[in-house]
Specification:
CATH class: Alpha Beta
CATH superfamily: HUPs
Helix content: 25-40%
CATH architecture: 3-Layer(aba) Sandwich
Radius of gyration: 16 Å
Distance between the termini: 46 Å
Strand content: 15-25%
Number of strands: 6
Number of helices: 7
Order of helices and strands: EHEHEHEHEHEHH
Strand order of the largest sheet: 3-2-1-4-5-6
Number of domains: 1
């Protein structure tokens, strides 16, 4: 059964750590592709639209275009209201019938995972792939083991890059070179985003 990775987030903007994580998950779990899904309004965190959704899509397209295993789907941007993962998963089941779905998320989402909307239904449909952020590997594996769902740890080196920090750097006139793909840096600079 083919494996399809689903990687949601605001990607505001996408950065090197996002891309490295997606590649590590693809390689470790033999995924045929990783689909980047920009969220419209995530229910689990404060989101201030810094740039239009259409521009986030353009930036994502530029960031992933060199990797044929990386795809983009803006289905959440086409919906009204909050972006609930269960709605996205049900859509993806229809688009990729027969595929095993892997849901990529950061370890910072683990604590509240069981409180997600329709979690009992969601956990029947996906295997969660958890990205390390700060926790030591053994402790993270134990936390994952204690969850009542199919959940595995991505063996990736944590890269401590945050979109919020990138936005702050731009606002204060500091360089974001090597934090985002060069094509993304150039596009953000050309458009004057986040400044």
């Amino acid at each position: 059964m083919a494996g399809t990775g689903l990687f949601g987030g605001t990607f505001n903007p996408i950065h090197i750590a996002h891309l490295r994580l997606a590649e590590a998950a693809r390689e470790q779990f033999g995924l045929k592709c990783v689909i980047f899904i920009p969220a419209r309004i995530p229910p689990h965190k404060q989101y201030t639209e810094e740039i239009p959704d259409a521009e986030r899509v353009v930036i994502l397209q530029q960031a992933i275009r060199g990797n044929p295993a990386f795809l983009l789907d803006d289905l959440e941007l086409q919906r009204d209201g909050l972006s609930y993962s269960i709605d996205t998963i049900l859509d993806m089941e229809r688009r990729y019938p027969g595929d095993r779905l892997f849901f990529i998320l950061g370890e910072d989402h683990l604590e509240g995972l069981e409180g997600w909307m329709y979690f009992e239904r969601l956990k029947e449909k996906v295997t969660f792939l958890v990205a390390p952020r700060t926790t030591q590997s053994a402790a993270l594996k134990e936390a994952v083991h204690n969850l009542n769902c199919r959940c595995m740890v991505i063996e990736a080196e944590p890269l401590h890059i945050a979109s919020s920090a990138i936005r702050r750097k731009i606002k204060t006139g500091r360089s974001i070179r090597y934090l985002v793909p060069e094509v993304v840096r150039e596009y953000i600079q050309e458009k004057g985003f986040y400044s």
